[in-house]
Amino acid sequence: MANPVLRSFIKDIPSCLKIRVEQVRHGHHLRGKPPTIALTLQQRLQLLKGPSPTKVNIGFFASKPSFQKKQAWMAERKIKRANMHFEKEIRSGKLPLNLEEARNIWLQTTSPYDIQKIADHYNIFQDLFGNAFFFPVVQLDINYNIDDNDTLVKVYTGNVIKPAEAHKLPNVEYKAQNDTLWTLVMCTPDGNLENSNNEYCHWFLGNIPGNRVEEGEQIMDYLRPIPVRGVGYYRYIFILYKQSQRLDYAEYNRLQPCLQLKERNWNTLEFYRKYQDYLTPAGLAFFQSDWDPTVREFYHSVLDAKEPIFQYDFPKPYIKPQTWFPLRQPFNLYLDRYRDPKEIMKEFLLRKLKTVDPFKEPKAPHKYPNACYIDKRIPSWLRVQIKKERLGWDRVNHLK
């Protein structure tokens, strides 16, 4: 009855006042501004975030394919998409698929933009250069030799390479003119043990003539990836700079082999600010790596240091005070809560050794464990324990 009366009452009220009147429903009031005036969630989030900083391109201009080439590729794509049997013929092998040709087309067209987007997704530019970015116009071809059988692991854009696979010096190739000079830096913005704002420099080559990497000046020797246990994936980034002239990197020279991590403290932004008039970033490649057992061995035998480990110290589980007669709780499990775990495992081990004979084969398990008869006169907690032992559940599994 209230709603028809309210509608007839507000029929002649102006629209600006009608919004306020219609907010009252059965004694409840809408909080805040009306929906027609209040900001949306997206607008509120935008106000909290604030204006996005201006991104500055510090690299070379990435050329785009001509309009005629684009038209030709689009026409070819339309023809292939219109062919209903094209995909089946490719998958079955009836039509040859030249992956190298497809990769070359990608390198000539959208590769700088795609690599820049992927690096931005991994927050590489923000961690290294702040609000600056660049387009990788020079394609870096980097691979690691795993063994003597010429097994290679290539570095792309964020693929996972284990520390054991990257313990040797990588092979770096790129296209460049003979009369140019280049600088190659490998660093990681993750896991600096002294200052989280700094990085570690894993490799530094300067004044590289053309693409002859082996003839460049080695300012810092190569240090294999050493991701700390318990942290996760580290990003290892290769950046290729083009030099406008020969540079003196004497201040960055380190005694080789450099096995002191504090000597490898690095800050890409400070380095670029100092040489920005002579260096232009042109190439980018990176991979991810997480801990494996070879990192511990490297810390102990090469760095002669204790391996840092990050792990969560779980608090001891709370056990309420023991009662005289616990109700509705398994008798044996309740008592085990207040016993030493080592004593319990010792008891299970002794029970296991009673049935083990070094000169006889182990007793065959029951084919149908739940179908075996158990005397009903046995207490319920003991019947459950016998079933668990037959099925191999609970602590019995630790002694197999």
From TrEMBL:
**Which stretch is the leader sequence?**
none
CDD domains with a match to the protein in the record:
PEBP_euk
The reply on keyword Transit peptide is yes
Instruction: Indicate whether Translocase appears among the record's keywords.
Output: no
The UniProt keyword set, sorted, is: Coiled coil, Mitochondrion, Ribonucleoprotein, Ribosomal protein, Transit peptide
Q: Where in the cell is it found?
A: Mitochondrion
Q: Gene Ontology terms, cellular component aspect?
A: mitochondrial inner membrane; mitochondrial large ribosomal subunit
Against InterPro entries, the record matches this protein to:
PEBP, PEBP-like_sf, PEBP_euk
Q: Which family does it belong to?
A: Belongs to the phosphatidylethanolamine-binding protein family. Mitochondrion-specific ribosomal protein mL38 subfamily.
The name on file for this protein is: Large ribosomal subunit protein mL38
Name the encoding gene, please. Answer: LOC100741487
